[in-house]
Structure formats: C-alpha cells, structure tokens
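hey can u check if this looks right to u? its 718 residues, i copy pasted from the old doc so theres a chance i mangled smth
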Amino acid sequence: FTCAEEIENGLYRAYFGYTNPNNFAITVPEEDSYVYLSSKIDDEEYQAIQKFIVNNTFESGTVERAFSVVFNGKGHAKWTLVQNGNTETKIRAASDSPVCQELGSIFPVFGGVGKVFTPIGSELTALGTGTAGDLPSELIFQLNSSEEVLIEIVPSSDNMQAVLDLLQLPAPSGFGRSLSHFIVAPTIIAEKYATIDVYFPIDRLLELNAYGDGTIATIINFARPLYLPNLSAGTVTTQGDAAMLTNDVRESFSIGREADGRRIPLDGRGVKIGVISDSYDKVNPGEAALDVDQSDLPGPENDEGNITPVDVKKDLPGKGSDEGRAMLQIIHDVAPGAELGFYTGVLSPRDLALGIETYSEDGYMVITDDVTYPLEPFFGDGEIAEAINDFTAKPGRTYVTSSGNFADNAQQGVFVNSSATAVPDFVPAGTVAHVFGVNPDGSPDITNKISLETGTYMFVLQWDEPQASQNLSNSTPTDLDIYLITDSGERIVDTNRDNESGDSVEAMLFQVTANSTTNIMITSANGPTPANLAFRYVVFRSNGLEYLEYTTGAPTVTGHAMTDAAVTVGAVFHELAQNPSPEAFSSYAGVLSNNVALNVDISAPDGVDINNITNFGADTDGTGFNNFFGTSAAAPHAAATIALVMSALPTWYPSGLPQNLITQLDLVVESNSNLLGDQVLALLKSAAVPSGIPEQAGVGLINAVGSLQKIATQTAIL
C-alpha cells in the first residue's frame, strides 16, 4: 500500500508499506524489488532508463513506511515486487494517491529513491529523470539557457583523453561538446587536471551511465553537478581603512621624495593586486565606469590620479552579484596606488587555479579571493591549494583568502564501527554505522539528534582518504554515507552515492518546512572502516541548526584556506576596532581528528560601506550606502594592507629586514623561500590587536601603524 504528500517545487513524496501475514521475515533477491519513476515531458510520458532497487527484506506483520520515494507530480512512482521468481505485484503512487496522514517537514531538494550506485549519482539522476523539481536547486545545478547543466566528470584511471574525445565527438558517437562548452580547455585539462568541467545536455545525462558500468567501456569513474561555491558574503571610503589605521599609514609614512621635494606616500604603488570572486560588472553593466568616475576604482576618469584601469582578465559569463568589485573598492581605498586585476573564480576549481597562474605570469604580487567550493578537499591539498603553493613559492608573492562564514558549525571524529545489526534495515547489507556515544541503556548510539528551523540546509561529509577527482590513480577505498532518520529508524533524507574508488565526499541538501527534530547517521556501506579513519562534516547552510547531543563544534576552515601557503583571514566588525572580537559567523580553525592543525592567521574589518552595487548587501547603518559583511570583506582589507607594507620594504630595506631587527622584534619568519611575503606577514602579526578566540581571529586585528612603527619613522605632518 502507499500514500503520497505534496512537498513543494512540483515534487511529491510517497511512502510505501506492506503486510507480511507470515510469522517470519521474507527476503527476495535484491533485483526483484524495485521502483521505476515516470514523468511527463512535453505531455509525453516516459520511464526512467534505470530502475531503483528498494527494500528486499519484509518483516512479519504490517510496516506502514518501509521506504519513501520523491517523484515529479506530473508522473508517478511504481513499486514492483517479484515473488517466487515469476509473480509480480505492483503498486503505483501518484499525485492522486491517498494523502499520508502524518505529513513530514524535512525532505531532499531533489527527488529519487535513495542511494544511487550509478556513475552519475543521485543529483544528476534526478535532473535526468525529471525529479529535480520544477525549479532545480541553484545550489546544486548550474543551468544555462540551452537546457545544459555544468557538471564535473572524473575519468577512470588512464582514460582522460578517451573521455575528452567522447565528449567532443558529434552525435551519435559522442556528445558534441564544442570548446565553448568546456570551462577549461580540453588540452589544459589533459595536461594538468583529473576532472573535466563541461556544460552537458540534461536530456542525455543518463547516457553517461553506460560509460561507467562496463556495458560499453568503463572510461568514466563518476560524474556530479558542479556545486555553486560559497562567497564568504570612492565616493565611499571603507570604514575598515580607519579600523586598521591604514589611513594614518598613508599620511604619516613616506617611501621617498619626488624631484620637486613632494613626499611620495606609502600607498601601494609598485604592487599589483589580483582579486578572485564572482563578478566585476554584471549586475547593471556600466556601474564599474561610475565607480571610476567617482574615484572608487582606478581608471582614466579617476580624479585622484590613479589612472591605470582594473585589468579584467575574466568576468563571469552570466549574471553575478559584483562582489568582486566590492572587494576591489575596498582595496583601492586602502592601497590607492596599487594596480588591480579581476578574475572570476566561481566557474570551477580548475578555472580558479588557472586564474592564479594567470596572475602569477603577469607579475601580480598579491592575490586575494573569497571563494569556498563546498566539495574542495577537507583533508589535504586540492587543485586550488596546489596553485597557491606554486604562486607563493615565487619571491615576494602572497596569497590572501577568506576563512569562511561558517562559525564552528561542523562535527568531526574518528569513525567508530558499530555492529552490522545496529543499523536500520534500509541500508545495504554489511553496512556499519559510526558510534557517536552511548545511550542511557548502555547500548551504542549511532545517531546524533538535532533540531532544525525552517530553511534550506547543506551538509558536506568528507573523510581522510584520497580523491580520484584530484588524482585519477588514487581514490577512496571506503564508502561513507550520511543520512537523516527518524527516532524509529525511518529514512528521511538519503542522497548518497557509491564512493568506493571515487571521492571521499558526500553532500546532503534538504529543506525544512516546519520546525523539526531529526537524527544524523553516518555509515560505512562497505563494512568496518580502517582504523582511526578521521572524518568531518561542515554545514555550509545552516539557518537554524541546533545539536541536541554531542554538541562540540569543529573546524570549518576548508579547501584552499587550509593550506599553510595562504594567509587566512577572519572578520571583525569595524565598529569594534578599539575592543575587537571576531564576528560570530567567522569560521573556526583548530586541530583535525587526524592531528593536522589548521590556522586563521589574522583578522581584518567587515561591515563596511560600498558604492554603486545595488543588489549587494544592505544599508545596515543608515549612511545611504550598502554594507559589506563577512570574511569576503575582511580578506581584501588584509590583502591591501599587505600590499602597502610590501611596497615600502624594498625601499627602506632593499636586502630585506636585517636579522638583528628580526631578532629584536621577535618576528616569526616562516622560511627564506619567500622572504618579502613572510616578513610582511610577520610584521603585521607582531602588532595585531588580540581579538578573542585565536581559532577565529588568529593573532588579532591588523594594526598597520603599530606594525610599521617597529621598522620606520613616521613623517611629521606640519
């Protein structure tokens, strides 16, 4: 029997149940219990190419909710049960099925049956079978006007060129992808990377499965949507300039005199700063020119003589928020003499890495970004981190990144294996669960109870094993999964994929329509995990999440912000500069469960005014200008301050700070490989104003005057 409930976005959730009149359980072969989803496209009904395997063990008595299915309201879900090898029983759930009496309030943002074992995974299966909803989630699916979706394809080992060829061959032999469909050119992918970023036709997504299951040729390991990255969210001068005292630096320190005796201010001249964010001039094209005219950005019309325009190396093809231009406004306020560049960083991790290389080749000394890809590695370096390592290995180069806006909204641990009998029936045979703790009755507790307010949530689980998307010849041997389940063990959200030989990553997105409680369960589908397997999950969208047990938070600094080669920046509200403390949302560093220590290096201001970016931020202080909050605003403040000091040191100390001064000031210089960058950071850290929790604020808020007073004499203002 079945019932159905309407959720939203054109989707319905059906619950299937059964009665077994025998006094013993019955098990049928796995392939004899399955669901087909159907939908209507252009008023013609079609069936999904692949079927979904569901429960194949049936307990004695009546089970009202054995499993659930999310389907498109334009179609239906049909459960088929084959008994004795030849007798088929079928039941169909549709929008006109009996309404479920106890409506749920938590559901995934796309449809399906549960864990998918095909190469394209749950998300792309939902999109390809019409069960991603009337408006597929923009957090998961980046669609264009040609009915294509941006996806990542990871070839199987030694098959990169075969997959690239398959994508470019015309139909029917291939998929007819021209160069314009690739985010990064195929020749560059083949040379540098393990993952292909390509716009792919939605109506052909299911065909990719055939190239990964051995039917034609096993050349594709897996594919998934390229998740939208998080952006750690002039006439107007940033209040952060005064908060860091960089306004005093420009007035009271000099780097020399002009021939006519005029003072050359310390304003960042001679340094090129590159910004990587979402877009530059896409909200209302032409506003960037207004910024120049009002001296909020450099260019020929700048009234303050800063006439070298922003070098826009690559802007976002579609419509963005112009957060990148807001970052550039901040930098120009603090270091008006510096030359500026922009490169969009939200198309793919590979393209962002290429942006770093582009800046490096063009002589940029400082790069800053505010981009967090949720599927970037939580353990070890990915493509972006490796590009940062290469950039900072060059003399005098510094990379600055935002720490993130995720507070300590995460959990971590070492996987503790339960017995196979402790897990619910819906999981694959042989599955074990992570034991969070001990129940009051002394039994192992395999769930963590949480409460949720209305909203959309994104959990990303990763564990300390290799990822094929970073190295085709090295992949995870373990298949961890993350679920939401009821107190009685009923599955609520299951969007897992088969990770074995793929990436050590699972993403779980769901919506909550009413305040609810539920339970997190983490399992290993291929049996007990290796000893001391570290894992952590980060909640990138949390709305109103509260842990009701096992409440300790965990580090949320992820991806390339973890690399030691980057300067990772936390946020402090600019009005608290005299008594600073980190913004509550500023991400935490700390020690991971594998004993690797992450750091936030330093803090900089946020909540500052920006100009001419109409759809970004809000006027929270009543000044008539929108305010820019988040570590996205802090990072450019730090980058610009680093550029100020970087422009002065070669003039004051052409051979670098002398060792006796380094010793006298007790500066901690990390290495001699990048002496200028290391000395600048050490100076800024030495005078930073302590700002509370080091895991969030690092050594504290930048005090530019205090840093420079240690090595130079201020110029008297008469």
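The longest strand covers residues 61-72.
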